[in-house]
């Protein structure tokens, strides 16, 4: 069929076969690769996602399937990755899991107090996502500059913060907001917490007005101050969805996995809806992909990683290609076998099988699966 989004003849990605390891017939691996296939349809051929988990890395002669002994998870090694956290569900799953573990380690080793702030701005159905996103980031930079901000930081013992972006689409158009994990030198009293929230709301509104935007006083800035809120922020970061029912909810997570609230759809939901034939959802997802291209998911304030004893930041591409140290080779696939897996569209099913089998059983299973493709 002709895909009006791409302007050429193509077909919608066929649903993957039901996996016995997943609820409602879908495994997490199946959903990630399925959503990736949909993203590939929507993006131009020069996008790196077209080689991601398809093409073998330069100089590599085989693809390894890595698995932790006695574990239930398997990864590919020796394949090219795109490392595009906003775009590729397969890479995003690896990247966000590592980021979540890093956040956990950072909070575990510090005696500082952690708070969770959320910033948003008023919007209308016709507002441009790219313009709103740029305005929000510009306002955030302006709020954090100058003597007035330094005075606030000194007053509340502000040591640094970690910022992330989020977006959904609903009846009122795009809704962009930021989460900020704030690290203070000491815990605040109730009155001081309220004072910080009021100060942040005032500074945020003033900064937005400088870039031609505005925010509601009550909803423009939310400050959560309990340990439970912070733990939820970290624990839910990087969790993966179930496309069939979207039952996993998150406070902060990468956009390809978070469920929208109040009728709003996240980019992952837009992508999944496109897979059912919703052309408008596909167009909206493409708008999102263009707007978020090149944006960082997590931004640490200057000096905070050193303060918390966290090492240098690893790039998204490096995290997407990384394999945990305690994983070992379960099976090695030669070029002919890998090409057969690609032709048969079995990338997800192969990993699901490897996650539940030992090496001998997996080899027997793979031989049967690839018999007609070799």
What would you note in describing this structure?
The protein is α+β, with helices and mostly antiparallel strands. The chain has two domains: 2-6 and 23-94 and 319-370, no CATH class; 98-276 and 294-313. Helices cover 43% and strands 16% of the residues. It has helices at 28-42, 89-108, 129-143, 147-156, 190-210, 217-220, 227-235, 267-275, 279-292, 304-307, 316-321, 335-344, 347-356, 359-370, and strands at 2-3, 8-9, 62-67, 74-77, 113-120, 158-170, 173-184, 221-224, 298-300, 328-334. It has a five-stranded antiparallel sheet with strand order 8-5-7-6-9, sandwiched between helices. Strands 4-3-10 form a three-stranded antiparallel sheet. Strand 3 and strand 4 form a beta hairpin. The radius of gyration is 22 Å and the shape is globular. The two termini are 29 Å apart.
């Amino acid at each position: 069929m002709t895909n009006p989004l791409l302007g050429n003849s193509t077909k919608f990605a066929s649903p993957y076969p039901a996996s016995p390891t997943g609820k409602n017939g879908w495994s997490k691996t199946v959903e990630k690769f399925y959503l990736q296939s949909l993203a590939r349809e929507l993006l131009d051929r020069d996008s790196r996602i077209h080689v991601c988990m398809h093409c073998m890395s330069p100089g590599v002669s085989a693809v390894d399937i890595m698995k932790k002994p006695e574990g239930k998870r398997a990864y590919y090694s020796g394949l090219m990755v795109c490392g595009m956290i906003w775009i590729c569900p397969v890479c995003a799953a690896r990247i966000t899991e590592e980021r979540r573990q890093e956040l956990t380690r950072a909070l575990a080793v510090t005696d500082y107090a952690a708070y969770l702030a959320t910033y948003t701005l008023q919007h209308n159905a016709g507002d441009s996502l790219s313009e709103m996103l740029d305005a929000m980031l510009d306002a955030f930079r302006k709020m954090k500059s100058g003597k007035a901000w330094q005075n606030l930081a000194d007053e509340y013992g502000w040591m640094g913060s970690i910022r992330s972006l989020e977006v959904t689409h609903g009846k009122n158009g795009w809704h962009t907001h930021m989460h900020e994990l704030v690290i203070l030198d000491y815990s605040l009293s109730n009155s001081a917490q309220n004072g910080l929230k009021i100060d942040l709301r005032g500074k945020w509104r003033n900064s937005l007005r400088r870039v031609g935007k505005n925010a509601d006083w009550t909803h423009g800035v939310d400050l959560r101050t309990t340990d439970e809120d912070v733990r939820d922020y970290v624990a839910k970061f990087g969790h993966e969805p179930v496309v069939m029912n979207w039952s996993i909810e998150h406070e902060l997570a990468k956009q390809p996995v978070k469920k929208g609230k109040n009728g709003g759809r996240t980019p992952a939901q837009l992508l999944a809806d496109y897979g059912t034939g919703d052309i408008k959802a596909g167009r909206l997802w493409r708008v999102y992909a263009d707007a978020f291209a090149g944006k960082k998911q997590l931004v640490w304030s200057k000096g905070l990683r050193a303060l918390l004893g966290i090492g240098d930041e690893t790039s998204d591409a490096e995290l997407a290609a990384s394999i945990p140290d305690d994983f070992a080779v379960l099976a090695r696939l030669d070029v002919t076998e890998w090409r057969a897996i690609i032709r048969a569209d079995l990338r997800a099913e192969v990993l699901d099988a490897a996650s539940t089998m030992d090496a001998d059983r997996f080899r027997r299973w793979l031989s049967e699966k690839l018999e007609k493709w070799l």
